């Protein structure tokens, strides 16, 4: 069995990554991790990254071999959705205690937990996750999983990605390696066809995959496996018989796409389902790859017919928002595929991009941004919270799209904000998703609350002085210094009704 350190070195030496190919041999061995800034948040660990990739496989029991906190902190870490099984939302952990660690009871407790899951739930597979504690004490989860699989007659898959191994992104790739080693190719389907594809790196956040699948169904294209969004174990086990693949998030699963191409000759491309043009282009490329693999060329004409129909419907719906959003300035504090796909989508309706984060973006992502924006100055690797606040409070953006971590920066700057990351409540993929994204942006920007919160508070207004009208930009209210009020005690003479 390949050791964890050897597996990590293999993942670091990724030939499908242009940035990695440009390094010398020594630099590739060091990987892509960067030293952490003291006092800064490190983000997720490798275990967290592995759980993100695998937990959306909905009919599998996910067993975390660790003290209780590891499972408690990682459970439901993405807003993925399931159209059927709900076992993935049940929390399983061996709940190791200090006594278990001291007495060396970890492996025995793990074997017992697998048996209890088998008897109570009878899942098609159990995924067992190693963590920092169990890796440090030397529990051999691979040996336990092998013995349990033989004893109980079900697939028991070891996920050897303890948090101490590295970053969340490394955990994504180690999870993909586990699928390659233990799952994909283990089941031969009896219904393989010329229109079967895989979609990799699609997490079905807020049900986004369900906006794309009907389009593929109309073209007669079957998704053999969507990894990991709304996936089933047997679908992934037979994913090696697909004819083509699309990678939605190459930052996470580029190694999975490349190795499936090498082993089973499944060509792939990186695309996006965000925005009208990108969705259409993704459908075209899927059809073209299938034709290259032997499908009837008639699918190309059907694809163009569907694209023309769906684009006409989407643009008609978007016209209702164009006038209110034309020229509005957007700041994107996200990364990965969204750093360019969402940029392209918003520019299609006439919005201006004043900045986009490329912290988690690949070299290919950054090249796409340069081609779209024609200006490197709008790209930033990382922006501190105080810089974000300064930019927003000075009115340089009309709305910020980001994750929940920076929402309070926008709210403090009295600027509209919309969640674009994994915690979002609305699906934004495909043609209908683009319309929903624009609708949510329009609602956020034109919400009357912003004009109200930017006004000076009644107790800041001097009697007899007319309050200034709020600026059209996102300027914050005047903040009086401590010296200005030195030796004075402001009084409030207005009644509650007048303040309201």
From TrEMBL:
PROSITE patterns noted in UniProt: NITROGENASE_1_1 (PS00699), NITROGENASE_1_2 (PS00090)
Residue ranges of every copy of the Nitrogenase/oxidoreductase component domain listed in the record: 45-443
Highest taxon in the source lineage: Bacteria
SUPFAM superfamilies tied to this protein: Helical backbone' metal receptor
Keywords, in A-Z order: Nitrogen fixation
InterPro entries reported in the protein's UniProt record: Nase/OxRdtase_comp1 (IPR000510), Nase_comp1_CS (IPR000318), NifE (IPR005973), NifE-like (IPR049939)
Residue stretches of biased makeup (Polar residues): 471-494
Cleaved signal peptide residues: none
Residue segments, region Disordered: 461-500
Pathway: Cofactor biosynthesis; Fe-Mo cofactor biosynthesis
The UniProt record lists the keyword Amino-acid biosynthesis: no
GO biological process: protein-containing complex assembly
One Pfam family per UniProt: Oxidored_nitro
GO molecular function: nitrogenase activity
UniProt-listed CDD domains: Nitrogenase_NifE_I
Homology family: Belongs to the NifD/NifK/NifE/NifN family.
Function recorded in the entry: This protein may play a role in the biosynthesis of the prosthetic group of nitrogenase (FeMo cofactor).
Protein name stated in the entry: Nitrogenase iron-molybdenum cofactor biosynthesis protein NifE
Source organism of the structure: Mesorhizobium prunaredense
Gene giving rise to this polypeptide: nifE
């Amino acid at each position: 069995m390949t050791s964890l350190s050897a597996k990590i070195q293999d993942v670091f030496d990724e030939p499908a990554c242009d940035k990695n190919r440009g390094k010398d041999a020594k630099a590739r061995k060091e990987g892509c991790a960067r030293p952490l800034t003291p006092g800064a948040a490190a983000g997720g660990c490798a275990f967290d990254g592995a759980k993100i990739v695998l937990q959306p496989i909905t009919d599998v029991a996910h067993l975390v071999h660790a003290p209780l906190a590891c499972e408690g902190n990682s459970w439901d870490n993405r807003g993925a959705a399931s159209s059927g099984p709900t076992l993935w939302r049940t929390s399983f952990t061996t709940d190791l205690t200090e006594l278990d660690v001291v007495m060396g009871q970890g492996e025995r407790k793990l074997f017992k937990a697998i048996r209890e899951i088998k008897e109570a739930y009878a899942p098609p597979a159990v995924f067992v996750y190693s963590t920092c504690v169990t890796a440090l004490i030397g529990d051999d989860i691979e040996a336990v999983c092998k013995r349990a699989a033989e004893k109980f007659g079900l697939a028991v898959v070891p996920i050897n990605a303890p948090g101490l191994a590295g970053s969340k992104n490394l955990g994504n790739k180690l999870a993909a390696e586990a699928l390659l080693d233990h799952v994909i190719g283990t089941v031969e389907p009896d219904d393989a066809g010329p229109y079967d594809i895989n979609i990799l790196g699609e997490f079905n956040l807020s049900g986004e995959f369900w906006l794309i699948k009907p389009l593929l169904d109309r073209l007669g294209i079957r998704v053999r496996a969507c990894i990991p969004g709304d996936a089933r174990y047997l679908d992934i086990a037979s994913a090696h018989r697909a004819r083509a693949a699309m990678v939605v998030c190459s930052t996470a699963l580029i190694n999975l796409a490349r190795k499936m191409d090498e082993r089973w000759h499944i060509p792939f491309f990186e695309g996006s389902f965000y925005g009208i043009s990108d969705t259409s282009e993704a459908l075209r490329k899927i059809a073209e790859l299938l034709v290259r693999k032997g499908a009837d060329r008639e699918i190309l004409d059907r694809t163009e017919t569907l694209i023309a129909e769906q684009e006409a419907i989407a643009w008609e719906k978007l016209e209702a928002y164009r006038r209110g959003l034309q020229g509005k300035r957007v700041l994107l504090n996200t990364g990965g595929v969204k750093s360019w796909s969402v940029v392209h989508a918003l520019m299609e309706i006439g919005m201006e991009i004043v900045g986009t984060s490329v912290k988690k973006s690949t070299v290919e992502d950054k090249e796409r941004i340069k081609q779209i924006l024609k200006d490197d100055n709008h790209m930033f690797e990382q922006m501190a919270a105080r810089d974000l606040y300064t930019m927003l409070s000075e009115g340089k953006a009309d709305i910020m799209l980001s994750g929940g971590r920076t929402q309070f920066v926008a709210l403090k700057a009295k600027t509209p904000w919309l969640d674009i990351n994994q915690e979002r409540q609305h699906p934004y993929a495909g043609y209908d998703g683009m319309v929903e994204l624009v609708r949510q942006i329009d609602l956020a920007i034109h919400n009357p609350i912003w004009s109200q919160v930017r006004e000076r508070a009644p107790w800041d207004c001097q009697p007899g002085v007319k309050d200034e009208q709020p600026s059209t930009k996102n300027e914050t209210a005047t903040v009086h210094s401590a010296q200005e009020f030195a030796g004075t005690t402001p009084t409030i003479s207005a009644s509650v009704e007048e303040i309201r």
